[in-house]
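Catalogue entry: protein
Contents: sequence, fold tokens
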Amino acid sequence: MSGGSYYVPESSKWPILASLALGAMMIGTGTVLVYGSAGMPVMALGLVGVLAVMALWFRDVVLESRGGLYDAQMDRSFRWGMAWFIFSEVMFFAAFFGALFYVRTFALPWLDGEGAKGVASLLWPDFTASWPLLNPPGADIEGPRETLSPWHLPLVNTLILVSSSITLTIAHEGLKEGFRDSARFWLSVTVLLGLCFITIQGVEYYEAYAHYGITLQAGIYGATFFLLTGFHGLHVIIGTIILAVMLWRVFRGHFTADDHFGFEAAAWYWHFVDVVWIGLFLFVYVF
């Protein structure tokens, strides 16, 4: 219902269902990590539940928006909500970049006898600090055979993501100016570039595992490599799905030049993912 200047949503079943589905997915994931495939059905059921709730919940939001129920106050609420969500994502990746920085700047030099905690070198007296760490100190851990060159597939993916931000901006400007054909074309190109990025990263992961010995078990280098690039790849997949939904909505005529925050929020998210990749390219691949 609409009262005064603020939209008050009706009672919704989606929050409690989302909590139950997410809880099932986490329980299943924990069971898989501890007991193996025994928890796979619960994890899969929870994941399907989360996806279904998200789809149906966003459907209701779209219907409410299309029904003219939202006003300027609600628009500000959506903008603040999206801004805080992206801030939480910034902190999410900041933790992983911080872990990489800590390992390279503090932990490895300490194990090599440098710094205030250089006594840690007593653990592995023959260890020599270097990055990328191809020779982990523990004899029970085998490091990668070599590292991926940043100037091949990673550089191609960097150019793809930067280009996708440009095409998305053109699509956004076209939508704001009322050029729907332009918006549809350039948004289609953006979705295609996102799919190209995902495909190339899949090829890169195969090369890393099959030919370079870079795995999750290949010491701290392998762990941080897949932690950072893997979570970023997941965000690219999510972002591509979001943009595909926006493309479908543009084809359906859902947005106007003055009312298209759903499109704008998707653009914010995609640009954030692009910026994170530039940091990954520099600090995971190049330096």
